[in-house]
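Sequence in, structure out. Go.
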Amino acid sequence: MDIRQLAIFVSIANRGTFTAAGKALYISQPTVSAQMAALEKELGAALFERQSRGIALTPAGRILKRFAEDILMLKDQAIAAVGQYKHDISGSVRVVASTVPADYILPGLVSRFLQAYPGVFVGLSRADSATVWDAVQNYEAELGVAGAMRDDPLVESFPIGRDELVLIAPPTGEYSRWEDPVPLEVVLQAPMLCREPGSGTQEAFEDALRALGVNPDSISARAQLGSVEAIKSAVAQGGGVGVVSDLAVQREAAAHTIRVLRIEGLDLVRSFHLITHGKRVLSPSAQAFRDFAVSSFSH
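Output:
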């Protein structure tokens, strides 16, 4: 039994399938299967029950999960404790961020951090807000950055930036005659290009509607697209309107390829938060990145 096997086992237990665990840990499904077969053989007990909708833990598996989580946490604590005696911080840190901070906020921060800590490698990956939270809660990433928040007392959060959601529309046809801000009833009747479930942008827009007593189902949704770039491209070609971060459309606004508008009566300013698991002791490189990010955005 080794640390890698335990990390794979905990990821399977949290995500419910070998395939999902492999994707989260960036290893192949055959490797996941082989590692778990070796672990079950060594322990002499079945750890998983195959079900139609995924995998459940056996009684032996539930017992191992408790110990495995403690072992992984102790490993992190040991690395952090020893790291305090290093003169120079080195190593790697994995950061999972939702689309807007990953594309428009964190690249500049990462660049400055790398200059301050030349011995650290930063792995920045992009996912929707729900996946970011899952990665931190399931011990798969030390640090996450997302706009959407969850009520989890075990997760610590630190504000590191903000943006405003705006309405984007084609610069031609009826849209060219819209006044800014656009009345909400006009927006609700327009063909809306939406983000996927789990998107922090979509969630923030729908929360703002609910705050005014408006059911999000009243949106005239015509398509669901999986990225900001896809929505911008479809809008520019006349496919409808969309709601995106103002950080994502500065170039298009300057070039007048897309109209950038506000929606009357909606408060669409939001904050982005860096999140960490409260029970996890961060590695020295992750601690340095967290402190650097919080300090950079507090000024």
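Check: The CA atoms of residues 49 and 63 lie 14 Å apart. The chain has three domains: 3-83, 91-158+272-297, 162-270.
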